[in-house]
Backbone:
């Protein structure tokens, strides 16, 4: 399919942080303006915990927890009115590597300015910074929405 014949592809990282919610809202609004589709991506890693017998990993439990978190995150943004042009991608892997990989062929990659971890004084989170430096398409970094005083 020639590039002019396909819908613009907007990839957005969703990690449960307020800025990722703002990024998802921005991505949906942008996709609606350009007639595109949104790929909402939740990348998750298996936590590493050592027990007396070695690494404690239950991939099925971790997958189910990631799926529940992603569903809750999408519900937090859209309630029960999820736009039809949003595709959900739940991927096991490093978030920045996953988003950088998915940026291949995308029209834009959208990330929140800060994720769930890190330092509160940091201007950018590590994932948004790595994506801005290494993505194969333009990157939009969205800050957390601020409440307006009336």
Residues:
């Amino acid at each position: 399919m020639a590039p002019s014949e396909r819908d613009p592809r907007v990839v957005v990282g969703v990690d449960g942080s307020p800025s990722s919610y703002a990024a998802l809202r921005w991505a949906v609004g942008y996709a609606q303006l350009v007639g595109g589709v949104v790929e909402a991506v939740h990348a998750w890693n298996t936590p590493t915990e050592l027990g007396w017998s070695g690494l404690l990993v239950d991939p099925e439990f971790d997958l189910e927890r990631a799926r529940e978190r992603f569903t809750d995150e999408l519900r937090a943004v859209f309630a029960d009115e999820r736009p039809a042009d949003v595709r959900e991608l739940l991927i096991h892997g490093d978030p920045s590597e996953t988003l950088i990989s998915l940026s291949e062929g995308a029209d834009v990659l959208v990330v929140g300015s800060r994720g769930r971890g890190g330092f509160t004084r940091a201007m950018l989170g590590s994932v948004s910074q790595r994506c801005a430096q290494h993505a194969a398409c333009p990157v939009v970094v969205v800050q957390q929405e601020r409440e307006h005083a009336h």
